[in-house]
Specification:
It comes from Brachybacterium phenoliresistens. The protein is mostly helical and 258 residues long. It has ten helices and no strands. Helix 2 crosses helix 3.
Length: 258
């Protein structure tokens, strides 16, 4: 299992990124304006809203100009996320907001309109990665159910989940290391991942949420060590990704049954 890295692994040029997005709004926008900077990460995944994160109250009606600015902001923010992820993939987790601004063909002050700090950027990229993992989980379970002609057991579901996690880390180690650096963004990523895992555990299991939280911490620690061994350990001195997945599934399922 050797997934391909994100498309376009090299950082885009400033001119390319600049032409891909519309111009930024004027600098004099008031904080209360719909175009003012807000923390607008991706919508929560189905079943993954954090406790207390229910539906938002209905937003007041906005005029056409405000709606256009809001749509522009979403487009521009998504473009910056794409540029940042490619840049981190190519250059490593230590890229700066200045680096991202240059690659986006804009200034650092404009980048800060969309992401107040690097932790917020980390959280946003983490949610994109989680969305990818959720898609892999849904597609993987659907494929297994089709092959089996019915529902699959917890072990098969956990295997798909772990495979998605390992392939995500392996496809872009730099992005994985950026997302899993200690911060509030990491805590959000891990808690969301735990909710994703808990959804794959049978309801009959004792304390599935607690088990899922422990499983995510265990898998993360094992994957971190595995990746370190691959880059700095002796040649051929580590296990393959498939062997790692087999070991993790065995260890976790043994713990669930006992």
């Amino acid at each position: 299992m050797k997934p391909s890295p994100p498309s376009g692994s090299s950082a885009p040029s400033a001119s390319t990124a600049s032409s891909a997005a519309p111009a930024d709004p004027p600098p004099g926008i008031a904080p209360g304006d719909p175009a003012a900077p807000r923390d607008e990460g991706p919508e929560p995944l189905d079943g993954l809203a954090a406790p207390g994160e229910g539906a938002s109250p209905a937003a007041p009606a906005v005029d056409g100009r405000s709606a256009r600015w809001a749509a522009h902001r979403e487009t521009r923010r998504a473009e910056m996320l794409r540029v940042a992820r490619k840049l981190i993939h190519a250059q490593g987790p230590d890229v700066t907001m200045e680096d991202i601004a240059v690659a986006s063909g804009t200034s650092k002050s404009i980048v800060y309109r969309y992401f107040t700090d690097k932790a917020q950027l980390q959280r946003a990229i983490g949610m994109h990665i989680l969305s990818d993992m959720h898609r892999q989980l849904v597609e993987g379970i659907a494929r297994l159910e089709q092959e089996a002609g019915g529902a699959v057991d917890a072990e098969a579901r956990i295997r798909v989940m772990i495979s998605a996690y390992v392939s995500t880390a392996e496809s872009s180690p730099n992005v994985y290391r950026f997302v899993t650096r200690p911060s509030d963004g990491l805590n959000h990523f891990l808690s969301s991942t735990a909710r994703l895992v808990a959804a794959a555990v049978p309801e009959s299991s004792p304390s599935p949420e607690v088990w899922a939280a422990g499983a995510v911490g265990f898998v993360r620690g094992a994957v971190d060590r595995w990746m370190t061994d691959r880059t700095s350990g002796p040649a051929g001195g580590t296990i393959t990704d498939d062997q790692l997945i087999d070991h993790l599934v065995t260890w976790l399922m043994k713990g669930m049954r006992h």
